[in-house]
Design a protein that fits this description.
single chain, alpha/beta, Spo0b-associated Gtp-binding Protein, Chain: A, Rossmann fold, 6-stranded mixed beta sheet, 6 helices, 16 strands, about 15% helix, binds guanosine-5'-triphosphate, binds magnesium ion
C-alpha cells in the first residue's frame, strides 16, 4: 500500500524543574541557595531527505516524544537538556495542522512545506527549564525555598502529506508502458507487467542526461475514462504530478484512436485540476516496435491535438526515439520556471 498521508502525535520534552538546594560548606553554617536551573525539553524536528519517497514508516509509528529536561542540580549545576527527536520525511512533504474548525468548516493550516532537500522545521518546541532557587535570592530573602517549575513542551497532532516533486510527470492509460519507460531512462526499477494497474504507487526516477545534467521523472498509476468518478484507481494519484513542470502523455501507437485517447486523458486531468491540464505537454507514442509498417507519417500531429504539442514515437524495446525524447524533455524544461 502506498501511504501518502499520515497522522502523527508529537510531544516535545518538558523543561526540568529548577532545584531548591543550599550550599553546605565547612565552617559556613547557613549556606546560600545553590539550586541549578532545570534543563530545556527536547524539540521535535521534521526534516526532508532526498533518499526517501514514501510516508510508509508512519503507518507503524505514529507517536514521537522528545526527551524531558532534567531537574536542576545542586552547586548551581543546570539539569541536562532533553534529547531532540528528528523525524525524517521525503522531500515534498507538507505538514498540516490536524484540524482547524472555523465558520466555513474544517481546514488544515499548512505549517510547513518541506519542498527542498534538508529543509526542516521545529514542529514542537521543548519547554524551558525552571530557574533554580539561586536565582531568587534577594536582600530580604537570602535563602529562598522555592524554584520555578519547568514549562511543558508543546504537543500537537499533525498531518503529513506527500506530494512528490518531479520535473516530468507521465500520464497515460494502464499498460501504456509508463513504468517501462522510466525503467529505461532512469535508475528506477518499478514493477512492469502485461496487465493494467501494475503500478499502484508513484515511482520517482532520476534521469542522468548529457554532461552531468539531470532531471526527475514521476511514473504514476494509469488513468482510465471516468477516473474522476472513481473508476480504476481514481485520480488521487494526480496529486503527485501537480508539482511537475511538464506532462508526458503516453499513448500506445497501436491504439485505434490516438486523438480520442489523448482527449480522454486530458479531460480526466481537467476534472482534477484545470491548472494541471494547462501545463506544458509532450506526447510519446509508445511501443513503436509493434507498428507493422512504419506508418508514423500517417499519424497526423494536427489530428492528435489542436495545441502544438511535440509528438515523439518511442520504443522501450528497440530504444527508438528515446534519446530524442530526452532531448525534447530537457529542452522543454529549460523553458519552464
Ligand atoms: N513491445 C513493446 N512492449 C512494451 C514497450 N513498453 C512497454 N511494453 C510492455 O507493455 C506492458 C505494460 O508496461 P508497463 O510499463 O507496466 O505499463 P504501465 O503504463 O506502467 O502500466 P500501469 O502501471 O498498469 O499503468 C508490459 O508488458 C511491457 O513489457 C515497448 O516499447 N514495446
Ligand atoms: Mg506502471
Amino acid at each position: 500500500m502506498f501511504i501518502d498521508q499520515a497522522e502523527l502525535e508529537i510531544k516535545a520534552g518538558d523543561g526540568g524543574d529548577g532545584a531548591v538546594t543550599f550550599r553546605r560548606e565547612k565552617y559556613v553554617p547557613k549556606g546560600g541557595p545553590s539550586g541549578g536551573n532545570g534543563g530545556k525539553g527536547g524539540d521535535v524536528i521534521i526534516q526532508a531527505f532526498g533518499n526517501l519517497n514514501t510516508l510508509l514508516d508512519f503507518k507503524y509509528k505514529r507517536k514521537y516524544l522528545a526527551g524531558d529536561g532534567a531537574i536542576g542540580g545542586s552547586s548551581l549545576k543546570d539539569g541536562k537538556n532533553g534529547k531532540d527527536v528528528l523525524i525524517k520525511v521525503p522531500v515534498g512533504t507538507i505538514i498540516k495542522d490536524f484540524v482547524g474548525v472555523h465558520a466555513f468548516g474544517k481546514s488544515h493550516k499548512i505549517l510547513a512545506d518541506l519542498d527542498g532537500e534538508g529543509k526542516s522545521i521545529i514542529i514542537a518546541k521543548g519547554g524551558k527549564g525552571g530557574k533554580g532557587n539561586s536565582n531568587f535570592a534577594t536582600s530580604t530573602n537570602q535563602a529562598p525555598r522555592y524554584a520555578e517549575e519547568g514549562k511543558k513542551g508543546e504537543s500537537k497532532k499533525i498531518i503529513l502529506e506527500l506530494k512528490l516533486i518531479a520535473d516530468v510527470g507521465i500520464v497515460g492509460f494502464p499498460n501504456a508502458g509508463k513504468s517501462t519507460l522510466i525503467s529505461v531512462i532512469s535508475s528506477a526499477k518499478p514493477k512492469i507487467s502485461d496487465y493494467p494497474f501494475t503500478t499502484l504507487e508513484p515511482n520517482l526516477g532520476i534521469v542522468y542526461y548529457k554532461d552531468y545534467k539531470n532531471f526527475t521523472v514521476a511514473d504514476i498509476p494509469g488513468i482510465i475514462e471516468g477516473a474522476h468518478e472513481g473508476k480504476g484507481l481514481g485520480l488521487k494519484f494526480l496529486r503527485h504530478i501537480e508539482r511537475t513542470k511538464i506532462l508526458l502523455f503516453m499513448i500506445e501507437v497501436t491504439s485505434e484512436n490516438i486523438e480520442k485517447d489523448f482527449k480522454i486523458l486530458l479531460n480526466e486531468l481537467k476534472q482534477y485540476s484545470k491548472k494541471l491540464a494547462k501545463r506544458k505537454k509532450i506526447i510519446a507514442l509508445s511501443k513503436s516496435d509493434l507498428l507493422e509498417e512504419k506508418s508514423f507519417a500517417t499519424i497526423s500531429r494536427k489530428k492528435i491535438s489542436k495545441e502544438v504539442i511535440p509528438v515523439i514515437l518511442i520504443s522501450a524495446v528497440t530504444n527508438e526515439g528515446i534519446p530524442g525524447l530526452l532531448d525534447k524533455l530537457w529542452e522543454a524544461l529549460q523553458h519552464t520556471d
